[in-house]
Design a protein that fits this description.
Elements lengths: L17 E8 L9 E8 L4 E5 L6 H8 L7 E6 L2 E2 L5 H5 L2 E5 L10 H5 L1 H5 L4 H14 L4 H4 L9 H13 L5 E5 L7 H18 L2 E5 L3 H7 L2 E6 L3 E6 L1 H6 L4 H7 L3 H6 L14 E3 L4 H11 L5 E3 L5 E3 L3 H4 L15 E3 L4 H10 L4 E5 L5 E6 H26 L17
Parallel strand pairs: 3-8, 3-9, 6-7, 7-8, 11-12, 14-15
Antiparallel strand pairs: 1-2, 1-4, 4-5, 9-10, 12-13, 15-16
Helix pairs in contact: 5-7, 7-8
């Protein structure tokens, strides 16, 4: 099992098993089925990513789960209950659905958007209000600041967070996500991925996520479903197994050259040792904080709010003229989740003025700081170990030269 944020043996699981048995979708007038006899099981509480080339049927397969597209034949079961045993409308109220851009109602406030499904289900207003605030906090938006805003007043990343909150509003066991982070910039995309992993670590939903990006599939998925044309399964396995042992040439070519580097991206920040520089609370007297930092040899201070969430990371020279320690809105500070990949960590460091990055855990609580040297040292060590492992395996099997997975870029075009 890949070490995503959603995989933790002692966490609660609120998701349901999802099973597709010989599911077919054939459109009128088409000789070839869009989806042909698709069968797989998504274990309760896992994230499964659907990935494959354009037109392979991954989005059609996803939409059949909540009957936005009706299957031609076959059976789809959620916790052994056929999805056709209820009306399509009732089914969709029990399945979260998150799409690119959040798809918010522009004339509704954030709170009203998030509360749409609970209201349809007959929840009273007090329960809806409490649920809205709980979910906005979960996705990293301060309820007091955001509940009464309209979508036009939000950034793309904030709209997508609201979309995720809306998908979770009625506490559904299954969440469907269709290219949820495809319309935002790379840094926001990485942060949204981290937040999804953090949320999944806490809630343990069953999540099916369609993506065209193999790197996103590797990062998010407990398992990856790689599809060929007609939603034919090329391989359904953990990211580690797909990278280490592609089932066929199609998978090897789809994953692409550099699978060794992709395997390094499976390593999570939580696997590395974090530094613990000087911290302070918003409102603390500046003088003793600076004195402590100088004695510790720190040039910066990590500022936390009353919930242990980082809100600022000033240099000492920036603090000197302020009698008390100041904070900023949390979203202005770049951080990464402990389940972020080492590639994410390096990307974030490149945009930071510190050459380091703050690492957070559940509900954005501060864990420590990761520096560039620690990441690069770990990656070099892991690459050496991988190379030694390959050489040893080749010696034991009497295989000279390169194995099939050390393919050159030119090989992929043969």
């Amino acid at each position: 099992m890949t070490e995503t944020g959603g995989t933790n043996s002692d966490r609660a699981i609120s998701g349901a098993e999802l099973r597709l048995d010989n599911v077919v979708k054939r459109y009128p007038g088409q000789k070839v089925a869009a989806v042909d006899s698709l069968s797989l099981t998504v274990p309760a509480g896992e994230i499964v990513t659907f990935v494959g080339p354009s037109g392979c049927g991954k989005t059609t397969s996803l939409k059949m789960i909540n009957r936005l597209i009706e299957p031609t034949s076959g059976t789809i079961l959620i916790d052994d209950q056929d999805i056709r045993s209820d009306s399509a409308t009732s089914l969709r109220r029990k399945i979260g659905y998150v799409i690119q851009g959040g798809s918010l109602f522009p004339h509704m406030t954030v709170a009203t958007n998030v509360g749409v499904v609970p209201k349809m289900l007959g929840w009273d207003s007090a329960k809806i209000s409490a649920r809205v605030d709980e979910l906005l906090d979960l996705v990293g938006l301060d309820p007091d600041r955001y509940r009464d805003r309209y979508p036009r007043e939000l950034s793309g990343g904030q709209q997508q967070r609201v979309g995720v909150a809306r998908g979770l509003a009625a506490d559904p066991p299954v969440i469907l996500m269709d290219e949820p982070f495809g319309a935002v910039d790379p840094i926001t995309r990485q942060r949204l991925q981290d937040e999804l992993i953090s949320i999944q670590r806490e809630l343990g939903k069953t999540i099916v996520c369609v993506t065209h990006d193999i790197d996103e599939a590797i990062k998010l998925g407990d398992r990856i479903l790689i599809l060929q044309e007609g939603a034919q399964i090329a391989q359904y396995d953990t990211p580690e197994n797909i990278l280490a042992a592609p089932a066929n040439d199609f998978v090897a070519d789809f994953v692409g050259a550099g699978s060794t580097l992709k395997q390094l991206s499976l390593t999570r920040v939580r696997a590395l040792d974090l530094n613990r520089p000087t911290t302070a609370r918003v409102g603390d007297d500046t003088a003793p904080v600076m004195q402590h930092a100088e004695q510790a040899g720190d040039e910066t201070v990590v500022v936390l709010d009353d919930r242990d969430r980082p809100v600022a990371w000033p240099w000492l020279r920036q603090m000197r003229n302020n009698p008390t320690v100041r904070g900023e809105p949390r979203e202005n500070l770049l951080t990464i989740d402990q389940a972020a990949t080492l590639n994410d960590a390096l990307d974030t460091m490149l945009t930071s003025t510190h050459s380091k990055v703050i690492v957070t855990g559940d509900r954005d609580r501060y864990l420590g700081v990761l520096d560039f040297e620690t990441v690069t040292d770990h990656m070099r060590h892991a690459e050496r170990e991988a190379a030694e492992h390959v050489e040893q395996a080749q010696r034991e099997n009497g295989v000279p030269g390169q194995g099939r997975h050390e393919r050159t870029p030119e090989d992929s075009h043969d």
